[in-house]
Automatic annotation (TrEMBL), chain A:
Family: Belongs to the sigma-70 factor family. ECF subfamily.
Pfam family, one: Sigma70_r4_2
Residues covered by the RNA polymerase sigma factor 70 region 4 type domain: 103-153
Keyword line: DNA-binding, Sigma factor, Transcription, Transcription regulation
Protein name: Sigma-70 family RNA polymerase sigma factor
NCBIfam families xrefs: sigma70-ECF (TIGR02937)
Occurrences of domain RNA polymerase sigma-70 region (ranges): 10-76
TrEMBL record, chain B:
The name this protein goes by in its record: Uncharacterized protein
TM helices/strands, residue ranges: 37-62
Alphabetical UniProt keywords: Membrane, Transmembrane, Transmembrane helix
KW Membrane (keyword) present: yes
Source species: Cellulomonas rhizosphaerae
Domain of life: Bacteria
Amino acid sequence: MDDDPLAVLARERGRALFGYAYLVSGDARTAEDLVQDALVRTFSRRRAGFTPDDAERYVRRAILTCYLDGVRRSQRWSRVRHLLGSSGDVADPAVAVGAVVDVRSALATLAPQERVAAVLRYCEDLTVPEVAARMELAEGTVKRYLSTATRKLTDLLGPLPALEELPVMQGKARS
Amino acid sequence: MNDPLHRALSDAEASDEAAGYTVPVALVRSRVRRRRAVRAGGVVGVAALAVVAVVVATPSFLPRTPAADPPIGPAPGVVADWPAQFDRCGKQVDDVLDEAGGLALRATLAAATGNAIAVHTTMAAPESVTDGWIYGTELTVVDSDGVVVGVQEGPSVPALDEIDAYYANVLFGGEPFPLESDDTLPLVSCEQYPSGNGSIAIPAGSYRLWVTQTVGYSGKDVSGNGRASTDLPLVVGAGGEPSPTADAAAAAAPPADDLFACGRPVDVSIHALPDAAGLVLAADTPESDWSSTAPPWSVTLGASGGRTIDARTDSAGSLALVDDGVIVGFVVPGRGALRELTVGPDATAELDGPTLVVPCGAAQLRGSYVAWPYVVAQPTRSVDADGVVSTPASPVVVVANPRQVTFGL
């Protein structure tokens, strides 16, 4: 049995990494790709004294980066996609709401950045500044994502933990 | 505290999907080794040949004055023994193609031998750009689910933000827009990637072929690198040989072929314009100065009957050119940036951008034609004068009154 950090991490934490990627992306196939890409990114750099625990932290960070990079590329392209070829490319939130309402289907109603912000804030218990650092965004932007996400998730899941640092959004929320 | 959200990570780890998941360690190791090799710059292989091929295949764009040697080594993003385009394999096409520069690309296909397809491209640029050069043309074969199942064999084109560094020692000579090119490129299957074991032949069937071209451009006050794509139907035979479909020419025409199609009579009249869900169109077109390059012109969208309409459109306007009652050509934009716009009693939206002249068939356009301006738009929300809100469902073709334009006299 291989005992190098990659083998150990894959064997002992593979499902946890998949679960993290699954929660972030909302799609099992995407999650598989994210885990694989994140492992490649992490282990392509040789690091001395690299333990599986160290590696897991790197891989989780890389999963997030890979996903957000993909979302940004997708958004860039969706702006120029031909409208006649794009019917049905926007998920109808009502469909998801009508489905079994659990956390994953609730998260599926969020825009990608909102979902990542919500996962980091509510599932990983990071603070808003920490979420902003992970997402490489301004705190104000993260607060806006969290405000919108909180409103949508509260409708589906009930009250969420109080977020003192979130501003009260006036008027129409922008996502 | 909302417990389900707090438990979400452990729930996802314990999900059925996670239970069936195993990290493909051997594959990860293989990719890590290749990535390390690229980092070390130790593997040239196919990628180096690809670089040479780029330079050799585009002699008209080689330096006006020979500069230093062309770059040697794998193109940025090339994974050692796999040219970079294979990285698109298995991904959604929307996630792997990008654009920049406000360019407009159109393409036509012709059969070639074996697994190759001949592609003719025409790239137009905004008015501020005077000349440009082509870095390369790439092909992406996409199945009905939008997944990349094949790519061109041979060279890849560096990512947009890496081009300047990659070609730092190469000078490209410019030519006036629109830029024309002809390439014959082999298409190969993604099944071989990354193990190298699968078939190189794309399975027989019907696909979309995305043609992507990367160019550099310059003008009086502007310069840069840009990229644009367009897609066409493609059929692959039992032996993996690609060919254009019978309707490829129609597909290359602008997307309003219910109303306007090559060789057909015009189906609209001034008194019977199509229902455009309240959208109306005006056009500002010069009467003369038309040639293979369209002069600057624009259309303006508005709303009728006191409505306020939210809509999306991704293009400048098109013109259907009519001679003796039959459509003989088009002036068309490429796939422009998608615009969200609102028009109403006090608001209109002007659309302009680079356009291309596309004759029906091989004939040159010369003389005077009746031109019907039109725009394809997707209304998303409409509020009438009484405040009643509706949500139109389908894209509409908004047609302006016809006018006369004269080509090349």
